[in-house]
UniProtKB/TrEMBL annotation:
<protein>
    <submittedName>
        <fullName>Uncharacterized protein</fullName>
    </submittedName>
</protein>
<feature type="region of interest" description="Disordered">
    <location>
        <begin position="64"/>
        <end position="84"/>
    </location>
</feature>
Length: 203
């Protein structure tokens, strides 16, 4: 009698637990569905962050060179800045100014002059022979001295001009005389002559 009663009680207990589980399972499913419907969907910003993060991880996985190429390039310079740079380059291309304190090269004519001169008729009476004494006061020797002589009438009007190159060298701080140099044919009406140094080369 006791065993039968226990058997009936045990079977009743199992039937009660199965009934309770059958009632609770639908409630759990409904609660999960409601929670899923109520939960907010991810926004565009979240999608973008996830996409950017995924791209960055993919580039790092591929290697540093690929990631460097994929990096965005800096903004292109302003056209006005490029023009300014070109302008500066053009200014820099100009010839440099003279060095301050540097003395310019002295001209041979600065210290070369005729210390004495005279002339006379020569040949058949239509040629001029000129005697000159040249003084070189420069700190360097000079050579290839070109002389120009102007012949004039008694009233001062010009009649003939002649030039002559002296293929000689005059040492520094010295003088030299060239007597009776043939200048060339001149007008027979010439009465006076005035000679001057035109050019010379320094040594």
């Amino acid at each position: 009698m006791t065993m039968r009663i226990g058997s009936v009680s045990f079977r009743g207990y199992r039937i009660g637990r199965l009934a309770a589980a059958a009632l609770i399972a639908p409630l759990v499913a409904v609660t999960a569905l409601a929670a899923w419907l109520v939960a907010p969907e991810p926004g565009d910003a979240d999608d973008q962050d996830v996409s950017t993060l995924s791209s960055a991880r993919l580039l790092l996985a591929q290697g540093p060179s690929t990631a460097k190429q994929a990096m965005p390039s800096p903004a292109s310079p302003n056209p006005a800045d490029e023009q300014g740079t070109v302008g500066i380059a053009r200014v820099s291309d100009k010839a440099p100014e003279a060095i301050p304190g540097a003395k310019p090269e002295k001209s041979p004519l600065d210290g070369l002059r005729i210390a004495y001169q005279s002339w006379r008729w020569g040949g058949l009476g239509s040629k001029a022979l000129v005697t000159l004494t040249l003084r070189n006061a420069n700190d360097f020797a000079v050579k290839d001295i070109e002389i120009a002589c102007a012949f004039i009438r008694r009233d001062g009007s010009p009649v003939t001009e002649r030039t002559r190159v002296i293929p000689d060298t005059i040492a520094m701080k010295s003088r030299k005389t060239y007597p009776n140099m043939l200048i060339g044919f001149i007008n027979i009406n010439a009465d006076k002559a005035k000679c001057s140094v035109v050019t010379a080369s320094r040594i």
